[in-house]
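Internal QA ticket QA-208
Title: Verify multi-chain structure generation after dependency bump
Assignee: T.L.

Test input:
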Amino acid sequence: MHFEYKVEGGDFTQAGYASSQIKKTLKQLGADPAVIKRVVVALYEAEVNIVAHAYRGTIFADITPSGIKLRLEDEGPGIPDIEMAMTKGFSTASPQVREMGFGAGMGLPNISENADSLTIDTEVGKGTTLTIIINFNKV
Amino acid sequence: MNIRHSTYHRALEITENICIGCSHCIKVCPTEALRVSGGKAGIHADWCIDCGECYRVCPTRAIRVMDDDFNHIFDYQHRILLVPSVFFAQFSDSVPRDTIYKIIGELGFTEVCAVEQSVDTLIDEINEYVKNEDGPVISSFCPAVIRLIQVRFPSLVDNIMKLLPPIEITAQYYKKRFEREGVSDKDYGIFYLTPCIGKIAAVKSPVGGYKSPINGVINMDYFYNKVYLAYKKKLPITRDIIINSELSAKGVLFPTTGGESSHVEGRTLAIDGMKNVIDFLEMLENEEIKNFDFLEIRACDESCAGGILSHRNRFLTADSLRNYAAQKPDTHNLVNDYKNYCSAVVHMDKIEPRSMVKYDRDIEIAIKKMENARELKQLFPGIDCGACGAPSCEALAEDVVRGQADINACIFLRTIFEKRGEITLKEAIRIMEEIWGKERFDKQD
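Actual output:
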């Protein structure tokens, strides 16, 4: 099952819409609450990353019986140093973004912790694509 | 569909011959558990959380509270009524509380006690509990909120505080007291005057591996009428009643918004009203809310002052409670007794989620059905008119893929199908009558 959501850079008030929708869907499918929590946390962080850093982006979600694959493509500055970006507490967020309670440098590390697989494709000056895979637990 | 006329916990029942199938209830249900079929409302029992929002809007009082028969109290020699502070706030301040006590005695009870007598002890236990927990602790006070979390927010069940609510602790105190005095459990009956429907469900089928010592639940709306009528008629008082009026200001205010959170150390928040509660729990579930130690969350606007069975205006009720509290001391004389007899019994087990199976337990089938429902939803007009008997176009789409409704139930699609000659006018009318009942259209002839 396929879903797509548009995300606008700088639109913090709408951030979290995609993760809420995906959460609702997974609940209705009867997925394990622990798995849903990981999906929601990872997706929310990734969604906020687009809002905080990129110009715009699209979230593609594919749900299959084995799990969920999330692809977040953005047009934005890209990540110059992925290793640094994966370090807890490292942040390039502007003071304005931090004032809103975001940009604590936990985004990518948190996504990685909650995902079964995380791939980052990035090109400086063009944008970033995150691919997150989270498997459903076999009951 | 497992549509019945009573709920999961049998706290509510739709009286079929009174229900006019007006569909008001289907629109307010926070779990979309109601449908109209054959001109009558039905409850999807597994989804109901006993919040009573449907009861609140029912114009004909077709939704009946499954309280216990009042005469049941006379099965016992000692008849204790546990009265919530909200009950006294149902009366205007000019009705003396002493007279109310006497009337309660005349109506048959041998002893009366405040539900919130256990609150002082409970607050100490809550503070101890919160200190030892990581995440935000959600209060276990409101039974509708517990059931909402079980059904709609299963990932948050572990956040619910595993301490009993005041009513159960006070009931346990009485049980212990009678045991101490050597009174057989056949000889005493503990009754609870409830301001809400959720608490009926909570007493009859409690969560967290607990069995309530409460012998019966009395509807506060019903009992208010009984007491007020006796007051108006100046019913002569011929019987004695033991009044256990030990109660602190904290206790009086505990059922009001903030009455619990204001006594908990750390960062706390008080949220009331079903819509606010759902919005907040969504955020909490998304982990958008951090750094809170304790959350007081209650389904009714103005908490129990706005309880389903509280007839008086919620703001006036809350105001009366504040006045009542101003006359009460900071603590009371039985606090130590409660500590000694109850601290061992205030804990309950983990609360289990109650999953709401929307499509199928098999995820592969569930995904297929959901895909179908998404396609169907696109087909429906998105007006959420409710003329199909379901609360929204989305709910109808789900019902159709579950095989519990027909696509022709949509009045708009039906009209289009009719225009195309795919169904006859006669057939369209038959569907309308199937949903809304045959008789209701007879008057139009």
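Spot checks passed. The longest helix of chain B spans residues 363-379.
Status: verified.
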